[in-house]
Amino acid sequence: MPGMIESFIEAMGRGGIQPSGVKSCGCMADLVPLHQIAEVTRLLDAPYVNSFGSTETGSGPATAGLIAPGTVAKNLSKVQSSYCEVRLVDADDQEVPDGEPGELAIRGPSLFSGYWQAPEVNARDFRGGWFHMGDMFVRNPDGTLDFVDRRKYLIKSGGENIYPAEIERVLLADARIAEAVVVRTPDARWGEVPVVFVVPAVDNLLEEDVLACCRGRIAGYKMPKNVRLVTDADLPRSTTGKIKRHELEAKLKKPEAV
């Protein structure tokens, strides 16, 4: 998981570990800072598998890309695997044009046959003969795919859709930021607005520095309306390392939130 990588890099440095025989490394979530990818691949002397998939899909639908050891990639655009078919669709299951977010729908020989004793869920997720993953992507003109965010966690601000991962990727590209998590909070004017919890990688990071990372890189309505500087221990995680966003949302409602 993304939250493990910085600790992994530090542990390798402290122990002077010289690994051998590692063929590749990777992380299924798409929120790993590019400088961390460069460092961990350099330490392992192994390429990074720039992939996307899920347990349900078997082998990932986008696993054809590799990042060479020690390389700071320009982006994490995915290359579709050749064995499956992929569509990006809107809420009416119509394909979206290039450059617009759409839910990834897949079919292929490695796809699972359905959820156990869940006919209603299967009818919804396998509608039209395609498995709808719940993950939003954008297709680029060259055919590569950019992960946007999970469809279920969407911030609707003033009628506009904001995907937290888009903001988080911009922030994580800055070496001064070790972790960034965007959540939603109610707003009287806009309905909902984004707030970001940031774990600094340096001692002198300011809230204004965080906002400056975003200016000119994302649309104005996507700018975080508040920045909370926290420690990694302040971020609630599941047993698999995923951030519990709903618990961070709850912190925002408390007068003495971190």
TrEMBL record:
Protein family (similarity comment): Belongs to the ATP-dependent AMP-binding enzyme family.
Coiled-coil portions: none
GO MF: medium-chain fatty acid-CoA ligase activity
One Pfam short name: AMP-binding_C
Protein name (record): AMP-binding enzyme C-terminal domain-containing protein
Originating species: Marinobacter segnicrescens
Domain AMP-binding enzyme C-terminal: 166-242
Assigned keywords, A-Z: Ligase
GO terms classed as biological process: fatty acid metabolic process
Domain AMP-dependent synthetase/ligase: from-to ranges: 18-116
Superkingdom assignment: Bacteria
